[in-house]
Design a protein that fits this description.
7 helices, mainly alpha
């Protein structure tokens, strides 16, 4: 059977394997969850390969984050956008299998040696890595809004709101939705 039968949207089997491989590498980098590697997913899928456009990328993340269920759903939507059901399978296998296997092994080792200095240092060292990856993801998700000054004002406003109040971030999401609906983003 050929690739068209599986709805690969013009991708061949080699492309599908590369997609799986790239997401497998990202899986090992996704400290703090798959969303922390979204900036590299965007670079690979949008910029380097051109398989989807920036709006499709951001929409996949927005839809998955709004839907009930695990945050990793955006990876499935990205795969679906790129290559249909097999693309979804490729991205999900790539993002889930390596990190799950590594987590299992490291978790068992960490539990056995939790008081060792290298284990504690490794755990503490992951925090700045996670923060940096989240900042990169935030920047990538902001890029399509660079032409909309009002939307750009929402970014620092949201940061201040989150740092200065204990209110739900849903308020800022609602404000962003209203601004977008009124054509400000």
């Amino acid at each position: 059977m050929n690739a068209a039968f599986f709805g690969l949207h013009g991708l061949g089997w080699a492309d599908l394997l590369q997609l799986t491989g790239h997401f497998a590498l990202l899986s090992l980098l996704a400290v703090g969850g798959a969303i922390t590697s979204a900036s590299d997913m965007q670079r690979y899928l949008v910029v380097e390969r051109g398989w989807i456009d920036p709006l499709q990328f951001n929409a996949s993340i927005a839809i998955a984050q709004a839907a009930p269920g695990p945050n990793i759903l955006f990876v499935a939507l990205l795969g679906w956008s790129v290559a249909g059901p097999l693309g979804m399978l490729a991205t999900m296998l790539g993002i889930m299998v390596p990190s799950s296997a590594l987590t299992f092994v490291v978790g068992r080792l960490r539990h056995a040696r939790q008081d060792a200095l290298p284990v504690r240092a490794f755990s503490v060292g992951l925090a700045p890595l996670t923060i940096g990856l989240l900042i990169a993801t935030g920047w990538v998700l902001t890029l399509p809004s660079l032409d909309h000054p009002l939307a750009l004002l929402l970014v620092p406003a949201t940061i201040v709101f989150m740092l200065k109040t204990s209110r739900s971030p849903l308020w800022m999401i609602a404000i962003g939705a209203v601004v977008g609906a009124l054509g400000g983003a």
